[in-house]
Amino acid sequence: MDFNYSPQDEAFRAEVRGWLEKNRQYAPSGRSPLDDGGNEDWQARVRWHKRLNEGGWVAVHWPKEYGGRGATVMERQIFREELARLDLIEPFLGMGISLLGPTLMHWGTDAQKNRHLPAILRADEVWCQGYSEPGSGSDLASLKTRAEDHGDYFLVNGQKVWTSMAQFADWIFLLVRTDPEAPKHKGISYLLVDMHSPGITVRPLVQMTGGRGFNEVFFEDVRVPKANIVGEKNNGWQVAITTLMFERSGNYGESVTQQVRELAELARRIPRNGATAWDDSGVRQRIARFASEAVALKYTAYRQLTRQLKGIPPGPEGSLMKLCGTELGLAVALYAMELLGPYSQMDFEAPFAVDSGKWSLRMLAARGPTIYAGTNQIQHNIIGERVLGLPKG
Questions:
Q1: Mean of the pLDDT values across residues 229-249?
Q2: What span, in angstroms and rounded, lies between the C-alpha atoms of 212 and 166?
Q3: CA 56 to chain centre
Q4: What's the average model confidence in pLDDT over 255-281?
Q5: According to the model, what pLDDT value does residue 251 have?
Q6: Alpha carbon 204 to chain centroid distance?
């Protein structure tokens, strides 16, 4: 593993750094600890997205022919590092940039690419993902939403759940069953559906944090033109797997590293026995352990990055990062509750709450990442069976 950057990489870093420092005032003010897609938060994200797009910094990893910068794997990493250095984020406007766009580049028709990719970059189209159903989560291929063939269009009926940002979405990429007699991994198709179509109903799922980022989406006799199918009819599982490969490429180490730093700052401010919690060697040891685990995650991410640079297929790092990163985030949030003592019971933005109550909110939210994008129990199975070669339980 080579930790040095080439002159070209450093030149790219200087360009990124210069632009971000000149334009950081257009970014949302701080990272919302709720980040649930409330209207004010959403509009701030849209403004930041559009500013990044004007500078050519939206989807830097997309090929130039599709409006990106064609950034290398290393340049993509540098871009993320520079955002983190200024405590900035890539605005999350649904799944267009990360999932649908790259999938269309592989499977979409020219008409689909020309219509949707530029609109995604401009934030003129916001996309959500229609995969999970009430009875089809980890076993996604058991989905029941059906699309009946009516000549030049499909008629869609069914329900999706845990649909992030559906309340703001213009479009949804949807997995539907087009052949109910075929084996469950067959007979599935991948459709692009206009969320403004008659027959679509979106209902928020309010979380215990108060966040409304997830939704149920119902389809009742929704007409979808045949031109909106991606790939071949009844062969949508292959397209869906392509999308999932992009979903599994997330980095779970960046946010938890920042949280450990903030935890150390919190310990230095909390009074304890005439001093601060930080003066207790037991507290310092616990936070040092969290910091060590965060560094281990960082270098595990570098292993994943090295594989990409060498053109090697993805290894077990993705599952390890997801499992260990989310478990560490949960542990940090729970330990913050211990440090805060009675103050941990105060709600977000309650009077007299420490740090405006962000720690209690994080604690409530920290269980979620251990469940979504493949539960940690599933990640344990993947690592045990496919990496360590253990027998199935």
A1: 86
A2: 10
A3: 21
A4: 94
A5: 54
A6: 19
**pLDDT for 316 beyond 80:** no
Kindly give the residue spans of alpha helices, DSSP state H, lying in the chain.
Answer: 7-23, 39-54, 73-85, 101-107, 110-121, 236-247, 253-269, 281-309, 317-340, 358-366, 376-382
97-116 per-position pLDDT tens digit: 999 999 999 999 999 999 99
Task: Enumerate the active-site residues.
Answer: 247
Q: Which of 93, 156, 77 is nearest to 129 (CA)?
A: 93
Longest dimension (CA), the chain: 78
For 290-300, write each residue's pLDDT tens digit: 999 999 998 88
CATH fold for the domain made of 7-92: Butyryl-Coa Dehydrogenase, subunit A; domain 1 (1.10.540)
Residue 94, beta-bridge partner list: 127
Matching residue, tokens 């940002």? 165
Among candidates 237, 230, 190, which has minimal Cα distance to 109? 230
Domain 248-387 fold is: Butyryl-CoA Dehydrogenase, subunit A; domain 3 (1.20.140)
CA 172 – CA 177 distance, rounded (Å): 16
Structure tokens at 309: 């640079």
Determine the topology of domain 106-114+125-235 in CATH: Butyryl-CoA Dehydrogenase, subunit A; domain 2 (2.40.110)
pTM of the predicted model as reported, rounded to 2 decimal places: 0.85
